[in-house]
TrEMBL record:
Entry-linked InterPro entries: Nitroreductase (IPR029479), Nitroreductase-like (IPR000415), Nitroreductase/BluB (IPR050627)
Ranges for domain Nitroreductase: 13-188
Family matches, as SUPFAM superfamilies: FMN-dependent nitroreductase-like
Name of the molecule in the record: Nitroreductase
Assigned keywords, A-Z: Flavoprotein, FMN, Oxidoreductase
Pfam families: Nitroreductase (PF00881)
A GO term, aspect molecular function: oxidoreductase activity
Keyword Glycoprotein included in the entry's annotation: no
The keyword Hydrolase is annotated on this UniProt entry: no
């Protein structure tokens, strides 16, 4: 199978984080098309040998009871982060970050659900530990698929910041005896048309060969 180079390049260039979502809800088939892209992402074969039940997707509506419980865990994590910053003397080194962290800890975590749907991904870990790396593969696949479909996509790092992973596992019905890494994204229709990106912000080109 040959994938036309310009098509893939265009999707890579147009991928972006969208901050404003339309209130119109996505049909399940579009949500599941994005999830399928994540399901197809690479995984650590040695870690997950002899099993195919190591990757889980949870689709949560922002008006559901589950959404409120998720927000409680995020709010707890934000308060803990303020304490960590203070106890480790990080406020002097990163005053702006400390200021933002404190402000976020003092208000409800409504920013977790900026679209009608939040997708939480849980990747089971093992030895060697590769679950965090695999989450990156999953999120990138989903992000590119959403871009192809002209959907709005935004990574929700508040979920991966939850330190009480046991509470999150229990809430989602995952095996309490297993280790999981978590990430999440908001997905939906963009509030405004997504303009074509003319220039892509990227790091300075840096390649070094050792021959």
């Amino acid at each position: 199978m040959f994938i036309e180079k310009m098509v893939l390049d265009k999707i890579l260039e147009q991928r972006r984080s969208i901050r404003e979502f339309d209130i119109t809800e996505l049909p399940e088939e579009k949500i599941e098309a994005v999830i399928e892209a994540g399901r197809l992402a690479p995984f650590a074969g040695l870690v997950q040998k002899n099993t195919d039940s190591f990757r889980h997707f949870f689709v949560i509506h922002r008006d559901s009871d589950m959404a409120e419980k998720i927000k409680v865990l995020c709010e707890e994590a934000r308060r803990q982060e303020v304490v960590r910053i203070k106890n480790n003397g990080l406020a002097d080194r990163y005053p702006e970050v400390a200021k933002i962290a404190k402000a976020m800890s003092e208000r409800p975590a409504n920013d977790i659900f900026i679209s009608p749907w939040l997708i939480i991904i849980a990747e089971r870990g093992g030895l060697p530990q590769r679950e965090e790396t695999c989450l990156g593969y999953i999120m990138e696949n989903m992000w590119l698929k959403a871009t192809e479909m002209d959907l709005a996509f935004r990574v929700c790092s508040g979920i991966s910041d939850i330190s009480n992973t046991d509470a999150l596992k229990d809430l989602l019905g995952l095996d309490m005896g297993e280790v999981y890494a978590f990430d999440a994204c908001n997905i939906g229709y963009p509030k405004n048309p997504i303009a074509e990106r003319r220039e892509h912000p990227k790091p300075v080109r840096s390649i070094k060969y050792f021959r």
